[in-house]
Amino acid sequence: MNFVKRAGLSLWARKGRTLITLAAFLVISVMVLAGVLIDGATARAEQDVKQSVGAEVNLEMDLGDLGAGAGMQAPRIDAGTVDELGRLPQVQKYTYEVWDRAILDDGQKLVGGGPQNPMGEGGTVGMGVLDTSLLPDFRSGRFTLLSGEHLTSADRDRKRLLIEERFAKENGLKVGDRISLTGNDEKTEADFTVAGVYRDSRPTDEPDAEYGISPANMLYGSVGGLGSLSSENENGLQVSKATFLLQGAEAQEAFEEAAEKEAGSELDGFALAANDKAIAQMTGPLDSIRGTATAAMWLMGLAGAAVLALLANLAVKQQRKEYGVLLAMGERKSSLIAQQALEVVLVATVAIGLGSLLAPALTQSAGQALLGREAAAAEEKLDSWQPPPPGSTGIGEGIDMDDRPVENADPVDRITVALSSSDLATVGAVGLGVGVLATAIPAAAVLRLNPRAILTKGK
Amino acid sequence: MNLSASDTGQTPETTRTPGTTGTTGGPGAAGAPAAPAPTDGSGSGDRTVLRLTGVSHTYAGGRRRTAVLKNIDYAFARGTFYTVLGPSGSGKTTLLSLASGLDAPTSGSISFDGRDLAELGLGRYRNRHAATIFQQYNLLTYMTALQNVTTAMEITGAKPVSGSRRGRALELLQQVGLDRDMARRNVLRLSGGQQQRVAIARALACDVDILFADEPTGNLDEDTAQGIVDIFRELAHKQGKCVVVVSHAQQVAAQSDRVLTLRKGRLTEQVNPR
Fold first, then answer.
1. Where in this chain does the record put each ABC3 transporter permease C-terminal domain (chain A) (predicted)?
2. Cβ pair A321:B127 closer than 8 A
3. Does residue A275 lie in a domain region?
4. Could A330 and B155 be called an inter-chain contact, meaning their C-beta atoms sit closer than 8 Å?
5. How many CB pairs under 8 A join A and B?
6. CB–CB of A335/A245 below 8 Å?
C-alpha cells in the first residue's frame, strides 16, 4: 500500500494542481448533476401531470390518410363497434359524439347578442354525446353542471338534453321541463326533457371555435335521441369521433393493438391518437428546460471529460520522471498506475461529494428560475391566442385551431429537485471512470518504456 | 554509526600486476581476455556477481544507428570498488544503465549470480539486487529527504537489522552529512550537493548487492566527496558489495580497486596501482 501514501503525499505537495483539478471536477460534477437532477425533476413533474390528466385516446379522422388521397368524405364508424372498443379492458370510460343541426320550436328562442348564427333561423347545434361528463370542457372545468345530471350511456336512446344556463334563463327552462326540436330535414320532430343545466364560462358574443354559434345556444343531447332527428342514421348510428379514457397512460399501446384487432377495417380512415394536448400544454415548459438541461449536461460532460483528460494527461507528463525513478527502484508498474488513478479518484470523490451537496440547492434555484420564465412565456402565448372571426376557419387569418389552448391546463411552473442515490452513483461512476481512464491510458503509455527511456525522455 | 572506510586500507584482490592494463571483449580487443579475475571469473572464484557477455548496445535515431557499446565481456566481483572512466559520449552511462537493469542490451546477455537478467526480470533485479545513484539525483521532489529514503526502503523491502525504517533513514542521512532538520526538508529546498547526498543515502538504504553511481561526487565539495568515496570503499570492502562508479574525478578513480576505461565502445581494465 506504499502507493496510497505516495498518492496522498503527491496530492498534498502539489496543492495548486490538486486544487485546479478539484475545481474542474467540482464544476463539471455540479453541472452534470444539475442536468441529471433537472431531467429527473421534470420527468417526475410530467408523470404527475399525466396521472392527474389521465390517458385519453381519440378516435378521429386520420388527416394523414386524407393527405394521401383518401378523399374529403369524413369517415364514419358504427356506434356498435365503438361500444365494443369501449368494453375493452384498458378502457375506463368512453364517449362519442355526433352532431347535427337542430331547430327550435316556435315556443323557444335562442340567446341573443351573440355572433351571427350560421345555423339559420332558430337553428343551433345539437350535439349527441354518449357521456357528457367525459366532454373535455367538463373535464377541464370550462363547463360546470349547475343542476340536474350528466347524460350517460343509460340515456343513449332517451330524449334528454343538457342546456346552457343563459339558454335556460332565456326560455324559463329548468330540469325536467320539455323542449321540442326539429331535425335538419326540417320535418322530423321530437320532444326532449331537460336533464341538466350547465354553465359555459365563455361570453355570449364569443363564437364557438368549431361551430361558430354563441356558446349559450349549444345543446347537448343523448346520442340516440338527437340521432332520431336525422334520417341519415336509419341504418344505425354512425360516429365520426370517439374518446376513450384509459385505465392509465401505460395501457395506451395495448388498447391501440386491441382496438385494431377488434374493429379491423372499420378503422380505415381513422387514427387512434392520444389526446395529449392538455399534457403537452402543461408540460411544454418542462420539455423546454429538460432539453436545455440535457444539452448542457452533455456539453459539460463531454467538455469536462476532455478537460479532465487533459489535466490527467498533464499530471502524467508531470510525473513522468517520478515514474522513471520509482521504476528504477523496482516499483511495479501496476502500483504506479494505481497511484496515479488513486490521486484522480481521491480528488473526484471529494469533488463529487461537494457537488452532491451543492448541486440540489443550485439546481432547484436555477431550474426554478428557468422554468418560471418558460412557464410565463407559455402562459403569455396561450393567453394571446384569439379564435378566428365567426364563419372563418382561421386559415385566412393564419390561425391554427389546433393551437387553441386547453382550458384549466396551466403550464407547470414548479419542479422539486431531489438527488437520488442512483443519480449520484451514475454521475460518480461516470466521473470516476473518465478520470481513471484519462489517467490510466497515458500512464500505461509511459510505463511501456523502460526506466532509462523515461528518465532521459528517450534521448 | 559511521561507515567511513578511510582506514580500511584494503588492497584489492587481483592476480594482475598492479599498474598493468588489458582489454576485454570484442574481436578488436587485443590480448583478451586480459583481466583474469573479473573477466573470466578465474581469479574471482564464486565472487562474480554480475557478468556481461557479448554485450552490445546501439541507439537508433531515424535511419542512423549508433553503436555505443561493442561486444563487451566483463565480470564484476563482490567486495570490489570499480570506477568507470572515459571521455564524454564513450558509453559510460549506457554501460551503467545496462548493468543496473534500467535498460536491456541490444545484443548479448547480462547475468546476476549466474542468472540471466531477462529471466530474473529487470524490475526484480532493480528491486532486490541493484541500486543506482543518478547524476541528476532523480529524487521525488514532492517528498522530504527522509521520505525519499524511507520510500525507497518500502519499495525494495529493505528492513534495518534493528529499529525502524525511519530511524535507519535518519542514520544514513546523517552519515552523508545531512542532519535531522535537513532530513525533514522538501528536497527542493536543499542545495545540489545536499540533494546528491540524499540520493546516495537513498541508494544505500536499499541494501542491495550492487551499487551503481553516475558521477556521485560531481556536485560535492572535496571533503564531502571524500566522505562518500570512503562510504563506497567500506561498502565494498567491509560489507562485500560490488560498487560501480562512473566518474571523471581522478580522486575517485585513485581510490577504487579497479579502473575500467571505455573508449569507442570497448572496455579496458586497469587494476588500481595502490
1. 296-451
2. no
3. no
4. yes
5. 65
6. no
